[in-house]
Design brief:
5 helices; about 650 residues; mainly beta; single chain
Length: about 650
Amino acid sequence: MNNKSFTTRKFAAIAAMLLSSFAFSAQAQTWEISPKFEGADDAPVAIKAPVAKIDPAANQKWWGYFTTDMKRIAVGTQKAGTFNQAFHIKPGNEVAIGNKIKAIRFYLRDKSVIKDLKIWISKTLPGDVTKAEYYKALDLSTLASGDETNGYAGKVNDILLDNAYNVGTEGAYVGLIFTVPSASSETAKYPIVLGSTSDVKEALLLGAPGQQWEDLYGQGLGVLAAQVLVEGTFHQNAIVPLDFSTAYAGLGKTTTFELNVTNCGTEGISNFDYTVTTDGVASAEKHVNLATPFKVFGGVTTVEVTLDADAQSGTKEKTITITKVNGVPNQANSSSCKGNLTTVDKLFKRVIVMEEFTGTGCPWCPRGIVGMKNANEAYPDNFAGIALHNYNSDDPMSMSAYARLGFDGAPQCQLNRDVKCDPYYGSDQKTILNDIKKLLIVPPTVGVEVKGELTNNNTEVKVKVNLDPLTSGKYSLAYVLVADSLYNSKWRQGNNYAQFSPAQAPEDMKDFCKGGKYGKSYCSPVFDDVAVSSSYNTAGINQATSFNMQKDVAVTQEYTLKMPTKKSVKEVLKLNKLNVVVILLDSKGKVVNAGKAAVTLDPTGIEEVNNNAAEVKEVARYTVDGRRINAPQRGVNIVKYSDGRSVKEIVR
């Protein structure tokens, strides 16, 4: 079993295992996703929208931050209590302001475990929902409940209001409240239904009587699975762009970045035009065609826009205005958004470092292997993985000489030595690739170029680092030697995923499921990105000295890493499968940038290895399923040599 803070999770229909440590505190409450629905976005089936009880009339639209094409998950505190849930129709909302709310839609998991269900609408967040401007107690016997197939939480309920609610310019809060008398079942422990999607401010508000409301924006839980039926007049072609933080461009360059926009038009979005205003001067219109039209009314999508660098380095505010939608003037009242563009003198390559706590004794760690593989494939030039096999001391790849990063369970990782998260699902509980993508947006202030060379008869790696700083300060470098393609058929990786069929799993996890290449409770995969040497000692202290840098003054640093002496690693180490990772840290220990390079071979060392090769003979050859063969066979062969090594050989 893993560390206590990382409890066992099981696949539902989507083979998801997350960790109970991914819980979010709302004042005195601690909200957790039900294990049954964790990783829900990885469902292997097509998403089907539920059938609404109330079909909108010609002048009506269902609207909410939640849309029916989203995956539905379940959240709770695992405790009894009263749970207040709401979302905010904000001032300036293009769909609802000035129109009427005719009905409220929400989802119920199990009506047998709740009581006192009420819906409400109010201009302000109420402490007592009975004092809301609209308030209605519902008869549970008339409502639908239960989870749908394929991992969808809850069933839909559309409640027609006794009197239509007029939405004024100040907007409105819409919510429901119920009490769970006893948290004796899974549905009682996790009674709240959410839409698992990107976070939006005030789209998920949770609270309880006597406690302050909490906006769970940015915490990866999603949005409240609720909508309102709006009656009135609607735009046909309308886009509302959302404010952004900062984009970056190099002098003389153009940068492309993703802008979030809301579709407020009944015709959807096929194309649009926009201008960029700087210091009061608008640019010429630019045109964008969407590869796939976005048709979700009220839905948020991401579009790519471009910004031209300013003439001088620095930061300036930019206003992006959507001028046309589908070839006609944008009908949205809020057609502009603001953000910053930072123009930098140079754009250096950024390398994101993932340091992962893992081990052969951790049965959920195969997903870390897959997460690291996915990151390497998605960002081959911008990613450096470092697998730290220190979960269990008997791991043949364990190495005590490394920084103490404060991991408290496995699998777990840090990206650029910042927030800890799952190495497969990431911080948004979807994919680690989203975290890496966000980090890559910000350009580094120091360029890092790395070279590594085997020396001294293959016992050392000489590392040379060239640094190009755009800033001044005190820095340090951490050096790590990582090895790929480590394989030994006797190494046993725990694998709890073997209990699941491939049909239950995301595509990239199928190899570890029942019947897959590694689909056994204990398997022998090929290990990559394994840390085998570093500049840290066994006390976790970096032996590489710190140094000062001045802006625009290039710096060269050198360090010699010792090759691993651990027998279990030396037996399977391949000299042509070594990489050196160098991490640049500022005076506070924050990662500024990193570099990664393949280690070049020492000609002297290669000659000695070749001279000794004649003494080593092949003694046996097997297929991957353990069947002995007398000659090379096409595919993967396991070859045993007289020196005790077992080597995977690919025969083509």
